[in-house]
Specification:
2 copies of one chain form a homodimer. Chain A is an alpha/beta fold. Helices cover 41% and strands 18% of the residues of chain A. The structure holds a DNA duplex.
Chain lengths: 206, 206
DNA sequence: ATATTTATGTGAACAAATTCACAAGGAGGT
DNA sequence: ACCTCCTTGTGAATTTGTTCACATAAATAT
């Protein structure tokens, strides 16, 4: 097992995960780099190299044992354990994300929602309590939150970011257009709908 | 002007756009690769190289003229003209996206929503008409749609993708977990919330 | 005028990631 | 037991992308 791997490999691991889930529904017990390559639109060499970064799971002449590889990738990605999430900003997008079906089956669970609207604070949404965003440091500690999802207006990002930094939350999924940067002990993933569309219009403009 | 540029440059162009918009609110008339680098968390060399791929907009010893560079980048990204969008699948996420504030100011406008729920078909949402998804080919032609946003259940992706291929829609923003692949004349950008979280949990697991 | 400072633009050096090419191990047939 | 066919795993070659280092040009100061 090599310790260093290209950054894009992490993204591809998530593709393999989906491909493996698909293959498991087909009741297969074995797969190959060729099969995974076809399902993910990658090259078989790329698949083998990626998997080899983390150990050698396959058997030459045979392929990869399906359930074992699946468990291994889940372990690598870290979705074999439960993660405690909170949502910050209960607007339209926030509501859509809390209701998102994909979370429970991935052991991702929301334990708190934060808001600055006094009318919402104290209530709950989908069974999850809504707290004052200024109480974030205390609540995060109390509920041992791991990851925060930002669905707030752009102009509040800096303030909320500072609040999160005071907690032991170590991951942020940022849906605003204001990009944040990862730092030591705080990993940030930015997802900007506007940006995604700009990338599309760039390519369509050519 | 060079014709070939690294793929990541396109993503960075969208960062420069935001930085420039921020600088414009400060009523500045000039900027520099240093300033843009600080705002985007990149290196000044990277900024200069990226901008130089598309022409030389700067003046040595001076910097870049702000409004001119802004217009140029908008033109490069293609958001100087209007784009006609449609939403496919009016669930929670779909509703959140249609209501998203960032679109009108970017000349991105929804002209149609497609659904397979007979109760929704024929109605409208936020002033946008809701059509039967099976009518997509006709409606797309009639309304000259450019881009489709997929907010449908994963198991309907393949079917809807085939419908879209029959139209002159050339861009898809896919919010499902089933990744689609770009092909000639049809550019696909995948955005999977589950995947983004998996990338976070991967790094937090280390 | 001339020197100094500042900031772009870019070839060259370097680094990262992918693809190639093939050795090596396992399965199955004869 | 041996040969053949598969398919993995991996160094080496190649491609792609970033950083360095500096020549060049504009602006400012003396």
């Amino acid at each position: 097992m090599k310790s260093q791997f290209p950054f894009p490999t992490v993204i591809r691991l998530t593709y393999y995960l989906r491909a493996l889930e698909f293959l498991l529904t087909q009741n297969k017990s074995e797969t190959s780099s060729d099969e995974l390559a076809k399902l993910t639109n990658l090259s078989p060499e790329q698949v083998r190299k990626d998997l080899a970064y983390f150990g050698s799971f396959g058997k030459r002449g045979k392929g990869y044992p399906l359930p074992k590889l699946y468990e291994k990738i889940k372990e690598l990605i870290g979705i074999n354990k439960e993660w405690r999430l909170c949502l910050i900003g209960l607007g339209n997008l926030g509501k859509a994300i809390v209701r998102f079906k994909g979370f429970p089956e991935r052991k991702l669970r929301f334990y708190a929602i934060f808001e600055n609207d006094p009318k919402k604070i104290g209530g709950e949404f989908q069974g999850i309590r809504i707290f004052d965003v200024n109480k974030l440091p205390e609540v995060a500690r109390e509920l041992s939150l791991d990851i925060a999802v930002f669905t707030i207006p752009d102009d509040q990002v800096d303030k909320v970011y500072e609040l999160v930094r005071k907690t032991n939350i170590r991951g942020i999924l940022n849906f605003t257009s204001a990009p944040l940067h990862s730092e030591k002990d705080l990993f940030v993933k930015n997802v900007s709908i506007a940006q995604e569309l700009e990338i599309i219009t760039f390519y369509l403009s050519k």
